[in-house]
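2024-03-11 09:14:02 DEBUG pipeline.ingest accepted 1 chain
2024-03-11 09:14:02 DEBUG pipeline.ingest length=543
2024-03-11 09:14:03 DEBUG pipeline.predict start
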Amino acid sequence: MPRNPLEGQEMNPRLVMLSAFTLGVIGAAVGTAGDFDGKLIYCQPTQNGCVERSVPDWIKLNSSITNVRREPGAAGWKLSGAFLSVAGFWVSMSLARSLANQEAKAQKYQNVWEGVSLQKLRIQSQAELEAFNQQAMIQAAEASYAVLEPYDQPLFDGRDSLDTSNQIEATAAPEPQTETTPSLPPWFKSFLSSTALAWGNQGGGKSWFVRLLAQKKVEAGYHLIVFDPNSNAREWEGVELYNTYEDIEGAMASYVGEVMGRYEEFGRSDISEEEWRSRLWKDGKAIAVIAEEATTYSDFISDKDLLGKFVRVSATLSRKQEMPVTFVAHNNTQTCLGDIKGLANLIARMQQIQLLPTTDPLTSQPVASGKALIRLDGSTEWMEVSTPKIDRKITNFKVSKESDRPPQPIKDSSPDDLWETARQRLEATYKQDTAEDTTVPNVSCNNSEGDTTDTSVSSQDNGTVDDSGDEDTPDTYPEGHGFPSEKQLLTMLKDTDLPPGRFIKETLKATKTERYRAAKRAIAFVLRRHGDFGLMEKFKDCL
């Protein structure tokens, strides 16, 4: 059977509408042309002859009239034209209304598509910016670390001269230790003197990395204390080991009392902080703690208040008293320390290293990949680094030979200073690359004048509430609290000169505890998704 050439082809609705409208016009023209009734044309006699007259054919004429003829009317054509006109105009109007609705829908879909395209471009540009930020951050941080501690320089062993104005004289190379260790990258030193969290999945190399860190702490001059309920003295030779939960609980209480006692003693003294820290090293009071299997502490230690106080003291007060703690866990959420309430923010702001595992192609078991992600203290940026290669498990932490030099505190390579340097370099690079882009806001990361006493959103004295009970920041914008949209809130954050606490209370009208915490989560969500370094620095307590 031959195929119809028009089969499968759709008619253009606009063409149909115009055709119907044309038929309506033609029908109207036919309907208005001519006469509806027929005519009788006759000759009316007069004195001079006759005059031609016409009347409708339904009128009866006198018998005296002559020369009568009939012209038929156009009633049929006029009715047909009228019906055709009505039908054509009705069809054209219906199609016009349908096309108008289709145009409105098409415009709506076009707006949605343009919005999706803009969102896609925004996400793509944000991803590119974050990639650029990470690359620039890594370069800036490596440069900063390289200035403080070049690759080819060994770590201080904690026994250099106390006089910081004197240069350290060259000493003889130390004798080989019982355990050989690999060369260390520059970022490693920041984990020696700061409280940190080492975490990752099973097989990622956490334990071996922490043992290397412990060995370097001992070599630097720290008195090392280890909490490891799953080990024994053979695994930790040369250090002070607590391997039962009862002993660990007692050691925690001693740690908290020691830190608080040192602060009280320092408050009564009349020396500077540098002199105080140097005295701690001189007196052999520099103490480092390794807390292995920290996730299990809350299950077997009955005093939860002591455990929470131990984490808070180590995370906030330990560095200036030369008593850093390294926690070892399987994740970096509040559950990593037994889900004790009120520790989420402390853990989130803690210096961290995530050891990344990979899969052994032969055994299909997780093994260390040699890669890790590090995050400096108080920052939100993660940097990928290569971890030192460790050939075997370190179990002997004894120093084979004592030096005659007195101990000296490790030069404070606080991540705050390194982060500030890296951030300034990154902002300078970013501003240079976007100098011609007038739409990028130039937000200073410095707080406005008068914002020196209200930079924390957890101070009751500044009219805020305690954030110790906050949970981890969600990945969704909090709804149901009457907050502005994300873009409006971002604009308000850029335009405000108020410190964080006053902004939340006065601008967002969040005075009650639940709404206040929701406001902090909203600010954190907007800053992480749309913010820049200036806003993150100003509202860092909300992150």
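2024-03-11 09:14:41 DEBUG pipeline.report Residues 154-179, 402-406, 436-474 have pLDDT under 50 and may be disordered.
2024-03-11 09:14:41 DEBUG pipeline.predict end
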